[in-house]
Each structure stands twice: as C-alpha cells, then as structure tokens.
Amino acid sequence: SPLIARVMMSRDITSHGAWTLTYLFISLLLITTVFGFVTLVVLEKMIIARLLGLESELASISHSGRTDQRVTVDGSDEITNVARRINDALQAVETSADELRVSRDTIQALMNASSDAATLVDRNGRLLAMNEATAQALGADMEALLGRSPLDFLPEDVANLRRSKFAEAISSGH
Prior knowledge:
This protein is mainly α.
C-alpha cells in the first residue's frame, strides 16, 4: 500500500504571500487616496474656482445695473467659451438698452412737440409716456402719473365710457 505523509509545518511562502497582499492593498488604498485628493485640488483650481469667479463677476454686474461691464475672458477652454457667450449676451443687452433709450427719447420728443395732451399707454391702459400738457390736464406731476391709468383722474362716468372704448380698440387691434 502506498505511504502518505503529511507535513504540519508552515511554509515561509504562505506568510510572505499574505504580507505581500496586505502591502499591495495598503499601497492601493494610499495611492487612491492621494490620487483622489490631487484630483479634487486640480478640480478646485481649474474649474470650481473659475466658475465661482465667473459667478461673482456676473453678480457684480447684475447688482451694478451697468450694461457696459463685461466678465473676464482668459484661456481657451469651455469656461472661457461660456464667458465669451456671456459677454456677447451683455453686449446685446447694452445695444438693446441703447436702442430703447433712443426710442424713448424720440417718443418723448414727438409728444413734447404737441401742445395738446399726448400719451402712450400699454395694453392695460397704464401710462408709459406723456407730454407736459397731459400732466397739466390731469393735475399731477409726470413722474407721479407714470404707471397709472389716466382714467383714474377722470369722473367715473367718463372713465367708464373711455375704458370701454379703449377695450374695444385693444380687442380690434387698432
């Protein structure tokens, strides 16, 4: 019959293998932690800080109400492209504001050229612009009248008649 012998001694290779696996696991954990930390620092410096700076510049422009201010554009990445698009939008707003100012000044000049009462009202009948003759006829300061309905200053029966005529004109598109 064959002889079977069993050796009950621990081998060095087993303990060395276990130590190697532990060392490998600790090394991977340490490398992953360092890599994660470096990634967070790079994200903070290259992306988050720039986005927060862009947001801060936009908040400053918004609070100032000035349409001539722009955000800083530096670099050649996606955040820089966003900053350029923001500046393009700010330029469009500035251009629109200038055109609106010119239109408002033109309308005011045309109304002031008339000695008769002249008004510009919105679809709800609130005064957007008027000349001095209108303010005198309504017995109030021009600034106090803006945003209000001129019908508020008329007798009720006259105001109701004009209100119905105004509604008719608005509904017919004239």
